[in-house]
Write a structure and sequence with these properties.
The chain has helices spanning 5-19, 34-45, 50-62, 76-82, 90-99. It is mainly alpha-helical and 104 residues long. The protein has one domain. The longest helix is centred in the first third of the chain and has 15 residues, at 5-19. The radius of gyration is 13 Å and the shape is globular. The relative contact order is 0.18.
């Protein structure tokens, strides 16, 4: 499945934020998961988030991951809420890094 330009832009912006050391941001929050950060990103960019959220969820499903807690497979939702900073989870960071690359 090809990734939309808009979702690639989101992943690139998240990757830059992570690489910058998670600076204070009006858009990205360490206590938000990817989906909530996507919603805030879309609000900031004046995009509709519904289609991009659906695209992201399909990416998770296609990769064999849970569509709601894709990076917390051990313990599910409770494990997600126990994370103090979601972007220190190496599975989430790897996902963002890989999806920030230009799609061919």
């Amino acid at each position: 499945m090809n990734q939309s330009k808009e979702l690639t832009t989101f992943y690139k912006a998240m990757h830059e934020w992570i690489n910058a050391g998670f600076p204070e941001s009006e858009v990205f929050k360490g206590y938000y998961g990817l989906c909530n950060n996507l919603v805030k990103f879309c609000e900031d960019m004046d995009h509709s988030d519904y289609v991009l959220q659906q695209e992201m969820e399909h990416q998770f499903i296609d990769a064999g991951l849970d569509q709601y807690v894709p990076f917390n497979n051990i313990g599910g939702m409770p494990s997600f809420f126990k994370e103090v900073h979601h972007y220190k989870n190496p599975l989430r960071i790897n996902w963002i890094r890989e999806h920030a690359k230009e799609q061919s």
